[in-house]
Specification:
With 227 residues, this protein is of the alpha/beta class. It folds into two domains: 137 residues, Carbamate kinase; 90 residues, Carbamate kinase (3-Layer(aba) Sandwich). The protein is built from nine helices and ten strands. It has a four-stranded parallel β-sheet, with helices on both faces. It has a four-stranded mixed β-sheet with strand order 5-9-10-8. Helix 5 runs parallel beside helix 7. The longest helix has 25 residues. The radius of gyration is 17 Å and the shape is globular. The termini are far apart.
Length: 227
C-alpha cells in the first residue's frame, strides 16, 4: 500500500515486480507468499468483535486480490507466473497441488501462493513456512519495512541495534518480532533459515539472493553457536 493507509500502490507494485523478475532472470526459482493486510486484517477485525474464523477467511480473500494484482504487474513486464490459491476459485487461480507447484518452478515460472493454507487461525507467516517446506525451498526471505531484527523497534527506539545473525531459540525466548512462534518452531524443526530484510530499499531483494549481508538471518542454533 506504499505510503497510503489502504489498498494497492501501483508504483510499489511495479517496483516489487521488477525486482523479483530481475532475481528470477538470474536463474533463481522464486515462490512468493502474499499477505492481505493492506486490504483487510483478520486479527484486527476479530479483536473488534467479528468471529475469528470469518475474519480470517476474509483476510485470505484479500491475499488473493493482492496475488492477482502482482501477477498482472509481473506479466506486463514479461514474467511468467502462476497464482495458486489454498481456497479453490478456479476462475482466478489454480488450486494448491504440491507437485504442480514444484513443476511450475522447474518450468521457470514464478509461483504466487495466496489464501494462506486455506484454514483460519493460521498466520501468513505460518503459511509461508509450510509452503517453503512443501516446495523444498532453500531459504525464507521475509520482506518487511525495517532493516532486519533489532533489539527493539527501530521506529520507536533510536538506540535499537541490528542483530545480524541469531538462532531460533533466541527468537523464541526473547519473543523477537521475526515471525510468530508457530512459524519459528517449524523452521527450527526443519532447519530452514529465515532472512529478514527491508524491501522498501531498492535492490535489496537481489542483494540478498546474491549472498550479500542484508538485514538479519535466523539459522540453526548450533550453526550460530559454532562461530
Amino acid at each position: 500500500m506504499g505510503q497510503a493507509g489502504y489498498g494497492i500502490d501501483p508504483d510499489v507494485l511495479h517496483r516489487v515486480s521488477q525486482e523479483v523478475k530481475e532475481v528470477h532472470d538470474l536463474g533463481v526459482e522464486v515462490a512468493l507468499v502474499v499477505g492481505g493486510g493492506n486490504i483487510f486484517r483478520g486479527l484486527k477485525a476479530s479483536a473488534g468483535g467479528m468471529d475469528r474464523a470469518s475474519a480470517d477467511y476474509m483476510g485470505m480473500l484479500a491475499t488473493v486480490m493482492n496475488a492477482v494484482a502482482l501477477q498482472d504487474a509481473m506479466e506486463k513486464i514479461g514474467a511468467f507466473t502462476r497464482v495458486i490459491s489454498a481456497i479453490e476459485m478456479r476462475e482466478v487461480a489454480e488450486p494448491f497441488i504440491r507437485r504442480r507447484a514444484i513443476r511450475h518452478l522447474e518450468k521457470g515460472r514464478i509461483v504466487i501462493f495466496a489464501a494462506g493454507i486455506g484454514q483460519p487461525f493460521f498466520t501468513t507467516d505460518t503459511a509461508a513456512v509450510m509452503r517453503a517446506l512443501e516446495i523444498q525451498a532453500d531459504v525464507i526471505m521475509k520482506a518487511t519495512g525495517v532493516g532486519g531484527v533489532y533489539t527493539a523497534d527501530p521506529r520507536k527506539d533510536p538506540n535499537a541495534v541490528l542483530i545480524p545473525e541469531l538462532g531460533y531459540m533466541r527468537v523464541l525466548q526473547e519473543e523477537l518480532a521475526v515471525m510468530d512462534a508457530s512459524a519459528i518452531s517449524l523452521c527450527k524443526d526443519n532447519r530452514l533459515p529465515i532472512m529478514i530484510f527491508n524491501m522498501t530499499e531498492p535492490g535489496n531483494i537481489q542483494r540478498a539472493v546474491m549472498g550479500e549481508r542484508v538485514g538479519s538471518i535466523v539459522r540453526p542454533d548450533d550453526e550460530v553457536n559454532a562461530k
